[in-house]
Design goal:
Layout lengths: L8 H5 L11 E10 L3 H12 L4 E4 L15 E2 L7 H8 L1 H12 L1 H11 L11 E5 L1 H17 L5 E4 H8 L6 E5 L3 E2 L2 H14 L3 E3 L6 E5 L2 E5 L3 E10 L17 E10 L4 H6 L6 E4 L5 E5 L5 E6 L4 H14 L8 E11 L6 E6 L2 E5 L6 H15 L19 H19 L6
Parallel strand pairs: 1-2, 1-11, 2-8, 4-13, 11-18
Antiparallel strand pairs: 3-7, 4-6, 5-6, 9-10, 10-11, 12-15, 12-16, 13-14, 14-15, 17-18
Helix pairs in contact: 2-8, 2-11, 3-4, 5-11, 10-12
The structure holds flavin-adenine dinucleotide.
């Protein structure tokens, strides 16, 4: 293996970020958003467009959290199967949320077009690849539920999956033509640019360390300044730190790491994902893979980065794609996913005018963008509620134990898989 750069491919290949300063002094706006990821940036962009004065205050850089580290699969819908969604929040609310997120990729690609965001956007669909009998059953169930709701998905058999993925290791695949892939950090930076153009104020390197009520609303404090606003949105998801750490208790943070290979040769690219779909599989300890613009294979799996994960990834890729023989990785990086107990994102009104949006459970590109736009419409009086649940969540019992269970489970699985070929 080549010497791994423990840095993200997305950071290395994203266009330059807009130049932003840290928050200094006192500012007054209608809405202040804590966190500069897809949720916060989309909310700011849409609020500014609707004439709401808005500021985003980010602890690090725009896209520092999950938004700049993810796989880049811009999918429709949620992780939860649609029937399960109806069971969890009721058929009426389930339909509203399903319908809103079925068009989430249209929203994402619409913004990319409207603001000319350079983020390696391709819209060739995604493939959910079936592994084993359980995987096939899962895909058949999802297919039936999606078709019943009018989604234009196709269930591919083993031969069709093989020709699309370029590997004979999958017995089926669910193809969703509504979806596509993006360079996620470039998309986050593009949203920041668009929000600035619409008049939003953005600050970086300004961790919010205190939030207090005032007679007219709220004030958020950083080391250098403060923002007074009628409303505050905590859009910090799995990365809730400093003065908003409390929010993190409602979610289990799960690590997911990715490796990016050297650019593949033209001969390799002719058979590996020739149509450039993004892929994830049906295994309980899931993995994902896709190509970037330079023809690198980006492969990811649950768990923190380290030699176990990279050894497992090398072996798994070799099994899937013998043509690669010995894959050489150039980059590796890790992100934190916020799993909510019901696998749904929630907007909690913590107190009057203080909101928190989190719990995307690994599906936040489309949902984060849509929820941001809906928050703007809600605050502007253009809609009565959001399509995601607006409920107060209870603390997750045994949160730390659950986090360790996932982490140790993924580690053990990867260790075990190093000596057992996939079936
Ligand atoms: C490895 C990985 C792979 C994923 N793959 C996909 C995928 O392929 N498709 C998909 O749809 N979704 C995917 N997701 C999920 C998606 O990335 C997230 O749901 C989404 O990015 C959440 O966006 P956000 O804006 O809510 O939060 P984030 O992007 O996490 O942003 C939160 C921000 O809040 C800031 N912050 C925290 N505390 C403070 C504070 N006190 N003051 C100021 N700022 C603060 C953080 O620095 C951070 O930048 C993946 C996630 C991960 C981690």
């Amino acid at each position: 293996m080549s010497k791994l750069l423990c840095d993200s491919l997305w950071r290395a290949s994203a266009p330059t970020a807009p130049v932003l300063t840290s928050l200094e002094g006192r500012l007054e706006v209608d809405v202040v958003i804590v966190g500069g990821g897809f949720t916060g940036l989309s909310a700011a962009l849409h609020m500014a467009k609707l004439g709401i004065s808005v500021a985003v205050v980010e602890a690090q850089e725009v896209g520092f959290g999950g938004s700049g580290r993810n796989v880049g699969l811009a999918n429709a819908g949620l992780w939860l199967e649609p029937d399960q969604l109806d069971k969890t929040i009721g058929a009426e609310a389930g339909k509203i949320l399903y319908d809103a997120l079925a068009v989430a990729p249209d929203y994402v690609y619409g913004l990319i077009d409207e603001y000319g965001i350079e983020c390696e956007a391709t819209r060739h669909g995604t493939l959910h690849a079936g592994v084993g009998k359980a995987g096939l059953v899962q895909l058949e169930r999802r297919y039936e539920q999606l078709v019943r709701r009018g989604a234009p998905v196709q269930l591919l058999n083993a031969a069709e999956a093989q020709s699309r993925i370029g590997s004979g290791k999958f017995n089926s695949a669910l193809f969703d033509p509504r979806a596509g892939t993006i360079q996620p950090l470039a998309y986050a930076r593009g949203l920041a640019d668009a929000a600035l153009k619409e008049g939003a104020k953005l600050f970086e390197f300004s961790p919010v360390n205190k939030i207090e009520p005032t007679p007219d609303g709220w004030v958020i404090h950083t080391d250098g300044g403060e923002v007074h606003a009628e409303k505050v949105i905590l859009a910090t998801n799995a990365y809730s730190e400093h003065g908003v750490k409390e929010q993190a208790r409602k979610f289990v943070p799960i690590f997911y790491s990715q490796l990016a290979s050297k650019p593949l040769s033209d001969a390799q690219l002719a058979s590996i994902l020739p149509n450039k779909e993004g892929v994830w599989d049906t295994c309980t300890v899931m993995s994902s893979f896709r190509l970037d613009k330079q023809g690198r294979l980006v492969f990811g799996g649950m768990g923190g980065e380290g030699s176990v994960l990279s050894n497992w990834a090398s072996q798994r890729v070799k099994e899937m794609y013998p043509i690669l023989n010995k894959v050489e990785w150039d980059y590796c990086w890790t992100g934190k996913i916020a799993y909510s107990e019901d696998h749904l994102p929630h907007c909690q009104q913590l107190q009057n005018g203080l909101f928190s949006v989190a719990g995307y459970s690994g599906r936040g590109i489309g949902p984060g963008t849509v929820v941001g736009a809906e928050l703007a419409q809600w605050f502007a009086g253009q809609r009565e509620s959001l399509s995601i649940p607006t409920t107060l969540l209870r603390d997750i019992p045994f949160r730390e134990l659950k986090r360790m269970f996932y982490e140790v489970g993924a580690h053990t699985y990867h260790l075990g898989q190093q000596s057992h070929a996939l079936d």
